[in-house]
Design brief:
This protein is of the alpha/beta class. It contains seven helices and nine strands, in the order E-H-E-E-E-H-E-E-H-E-H-E-H-H-E-H. Bound molecules: adenosine-5'-diphosphate (ADP) and guanosine-5'-monophosphate. The site of guanosine-5'-monophosphate (5GP) has 16 residues, from strand 5, strand 6 and helix 4.
Length: 187
């Protein structure tokens, strides 16, 4: 297989509340063959979130072990919780020639950039700051102090947008899902 035909690892990042999960869910409804890595996290599940589907919900001790054993491709602390990408499942998919999608934060995207130089980094941006605040608040899943922490982190994340290979603005979920599929060479 020529090098440019190799399926790539794509990273989708962007501030909390911008709509990453919504876009990915929409995309996978139409294209269930797109594989999304399931991260480990020490965050508590939100209503409706299932272990092994949305995240592997782990204790602090379990996360310590995953890190110490080198089982994570990358990991980061975000707004008071730790999150990481299990390495094995990602490697299996890439070895089978299947495209891989990671939905991770800026710190994780930077680590992937360092360890996998051919990864494609995609930034999902909000139409405006006001709309980001509206979405994060409107989701209603976090108390005000957690929203504040996430908006603080969002300022740093928005400033890092030029580090990414591509930027998609999440005005329409349908449009962004289509653009992301095209970037992943799925359609
Ligand atoms: P993230 O995964 O980036 O933290 P979510 O996917 O949970 O964000 O989306 C945050 C909120 O914004 C949700 O309530 C979602 O329904 C809403 N949302 C996502 N995309 C759009 C969009 N294009 N227009 C309006 N609302 C959106
Ligand atoms: P949430 O708590 O809203 O599900 O996720 C908070 C942030 O953590 C989001 O920016 C999300 O992309 C990021 N995140 C989720 N999984 C991982 C992961 O495995 N690694 C890293 N670095 N960030 C992650």
């Amino acid at each position: 297989m020529p090098p440019d035909a190799r399926p790539r690892l794509t990273v989708l990042s962007g501030p909390s509340g911008v709509g990453k999960s919504t876009v990915v869910a929409h995309m996978r409804k139409e294209h269930p063959e797109v594989w999304l890595s399931v991260s480990a996290t020490t965050r508590k599940p939100r209503p409706g979130e299932q272990h092994g589907v949305h995240y592997f919900f782990v204790t602090d001790d379990e996360m310590d072990k995953l890190i110490a054993n080198g089982e994570l491709l990358e990991w980061a602390e975000f707004a008071g919780n730790r999150y990481g990408t299990p390495r094995g499942a990602v490697q299996d998919r890439l070895e089978k020639g299947e495209p891989v999608l990671l939905e991770i934060d800026l710190q994780g995207a930077r680590q992937v950039r360092e360890s996998m130089s051919d990864a494609q980094l995609v930034f999902l941006a909000p139409p405006s700051w006001e709309e980001l605040v509206r979405r994060l608040t409107g989701r209603g899943t976090e108390p005000p102090e957690v929203i504040e922490r996430r908006l603080d982190a969002a300022k740093t994340e928005l400033a890092a947008e030029p580090e990414f290979d591509e930027t998609l603005v999440n005005t329409s979920v349908e449009d962004v899902a289509r653009e992301l599929l095209a970037l992943m060479d799925v359609v």
